[in-house]
Structure formats: C-alpha cells, structure tokens
Amino acid sequence: MAKFYGIELNSPLMLGTSQYPSPAILEEAFKRSGASVATVSLRREAGNSKMGGDFWALIQSLNVKVLPNTAGCYSIKEAVTTAQMARELFNTSWIKLEVIGHSDTLQPDPFQLVEAARILVDDGFKVFPYTTEDVVVAERLLRAGCEVLMPWGAPIGTGLGLTNIYGLRTLRAQFPDVPMVIDAGIGLPSHASMAMEMGFDAVLINTAVAKAGDPPAMAEAFAKAIAAGRLARNADPMEPRDMASASTPVIGKAFLS
Amino acid sequence: MKIILNGAKTDVLQGTLSAAMIELGYVKKLYATAVNGNFVRATERETYVLKTNDKVEIVAPRAGG
Prior knowledge:
The structure holds two protein chains of two kinds. Chain A is an alpha/beta fold. Chain A is built from nine helices and ten strands. Chain B has a five-stranded mixed sheet with strand order 2-1-5-3-4, with no helix packed on it. Classes of the chains: A alpha/beta, B mainly beta. Chain A binds chain B through residues 16-20, 26, 39-49, 51-53, 55-56, 59, 68-69, 71, 77-78, 81, 84-86, 88-90, 156, 204, 206-207, and chain B through 6-7, 21, 24-26, 28, 30-34, 37-39, 41-42, 57-65. β4 of chain A pairs antiparallel with β5 of chain B.
C-alpha cells in the first residue's frame, strides 16, 4: 500500500462527509466502508450554533484520518487562508487543495493550483492537490513540492467514472512512484475498481455513496470493489490483445470431419 | 462600530477580535478566523484590534467532499 506523506492507510477508500440523509447514515456508511480517511470542510458559523461542534464530534468518533479541503475556493488567497484555518481547527497539516477555475465543470485552475500548492508546501502543509489528468500540471505540482496527486476521474458530482482512460493511464505510467488518489467523478463501484486495477493507490468518493438510495450498502459495495481492484492489480493482469487465442488446447483434438 | 461578520453588517463594541467573538456568542474553541481575507490565529485574537468595516470570517467544521 502506498504511503501518503509517510502514512500508510488501512484502506484505500477515502470517503467524503457531505450530502448524507442524516448523521446516523453517514456514521453507518463509514462503518460499512472501512474508509480510512474522511474529507471535511470549513463553513461560516453563527455565534449560537452547535452545528460545527456536533459535526466535529461525529467525525472524531469515526476514528479515521481527517483530510480538510478548500472546496469552493476560486483564488490562491482564498485557498491559502482556508488551508491555514483548517490546519489550526483540525490540527492537521494535510490539505486537499482545490482551486476551482470553472463554475460549471468545477475544473481546477491549474495555474493558481500550482502557485497555491507552492505557497502551502513552503508553509509546511502536506498538499493533496485536486487536479486533472494533465501530465504537465502534475509535473509542476510535484516540482512545487506535492508528494501526492489527486487527479479527477470526471467533474465533481457527475458520477461519470473515468472519462479519460488514456490520460489517466499516461499519468500513472509517467509517475509510477507518486501516490495518486482518484478524486471526483466516480459514480459506481466498477469505476473505483477500474481505478485500482489501473494502479491508482486510493479513491475518494462522496456523492456516489451519499446520494445512493442506501448509502451504507453502497459504501460497502465500494469497499469490496476497491479491494477487488487492488487485488487484481497486484495479481498482475494479463495484457489485452486484438487477436483471439484459444484457451482450450488444440493438440489432441479429435479429427471428426 | 460596524463590521462585516460572515457577510452581514454587524454592530460590535470597539475592541479586539476575541472580545467581539465573546460579545457575539462565539464562546467555544471550535472556530477559525480570518479578517479581511487573512488568517488570524486563535492565539492572536486577544491582541487583534478590529477596525470599522473589517470583514471578519468565523468558520467551524462542516461536511465536505
């Protein structure tokens, strides 16, 4: 299992905490998934509100590693300030860095992403950059000091799966030793299994579980698919080929014509 | 004086960020703060003096993906 900034996770499944029908269902989904990481965010709080405290107590009870995000940030300054607030509040230097560049696709802004990553790495953060499958951007992020990459499978919340297999395969092959998490766009367990079969090290899922009719069951389905995908990868799959090749031996076949 | 607290005009007594937070009911430790887009550490709030029209953000943990 790949290490993420020196940390070996119990499970390659990272689970988001947003959009569940209830806190109890969120808790059950985490239990059945065996997820090792929970992503969280920061949002405005009213003075007399208990929301933040109640949510944080629930997350702490899950006994998983916390990965705060900078979701919704469109500028370097927003992302850096959000990361600084998250580090203090969640007591972790891990940050899932999102710098969004397009409001419809929620595509990351690669130019601001790289600069924000550089600033945060210099400030001691362990940055998990939400990026695309672009190899050049990946190289810039690594050069900025990122030791993990989080390429998208598809735009956030779409559930389309791995929409650019060629690009993701190229990214994986280009940086074989960099821990990579497929973030965003996963809709079905088969998508997650495919990501693991392709050699990615972990998968981050939120909407596909939280918006399922039965989130805990879907969380368990993802866990099993991810385990199957990883097992298959480690079992060294056969190479695909264009021409048929008989699996039953030809030698010894009776001549009956 | 008036400040902009989490996007809304809000009246607070002149003083520090820490004093304003207590005045506004932020009595727990589970907050992070920024003023005018810049992070203000918890340890700095008692000495950080607010000015009129400062944009204060007070955030707490929430669900995220």
